[in-house]
Amino acid sequence: MWKETSSELTQQFKFKDFIDALEFINQVAVMAERHNHHPTIINTYNKVELKLSTHDAGNTVTDKDWALALDIDCMDKKTIS
């Protein structure tokens, strides 16, 4: 579930292992390119945190962020939590 603050959308994902986490990151990269909107990605072993904000709108949450978040939610991912 995405959490919204005044300046970003965030969500954490947990995977079986490092390889599954990296596969997810690669899928997000392809999706981000399609949207021409790129998240901050933090990866530690099997955990991935995504942060979305629109830099050219003053680092705030916009419809671009929600659109990318929705498409990420619709991706086929092997999360364990």
- Over all CA atoms, what is the radius of gyration? 12 Å
Measured distance between first and last alpha carbons:
11 Å
Number of strands: 4
- The quaternary structure here is single chain
The unreliable regions are none
Instruction: Provide the residue-averaged pLDDT.
Output: 92
> Would you identify the CATH H-level superfamily?
Transcriptional coactivator/pterin dehydratase
CATH C-level category: Alpha Beta
CATH architecture: 2-Layer Sandwich
Strand order, sheet with most strands: 1-2-4-3
CATH topology: Gyrase A, domain 2
Strand residue content: 15-25%
Tell me the number of structural domains: 1
Estimate percent helicity: 25-40%
Name the features.
globular, Gyrase A, domain 2, four-stranded antiparallel beta sheet, single chain, alpha+beta
Structure explained in plain terms:
The protein is of the alpha+beta class and about 80 residues long. The chain has one domain (about 5-75): Gyrase A, domain 2 (2-Layer Sandwich), CATH 3.30.1360. Helix content is about 35%, strand content about 25%. The protein has helices spanning about 20-35, 65-75, and strands spanning about 5, 10-15, 40-45, 45-50. It has a 4-stranded antiparallel sheet with strand order 1-2-4-3, covered by helices on one side. Strand 3 (about 40-45) and strand 4 form a beta hairpin. Helix 1 (about 20-35) packs across helix 2. The radius of gyration is 12 Å and the shape is globular. The termini are close together. The model has no long low-confidence stretch (mean pLDDT about 90).
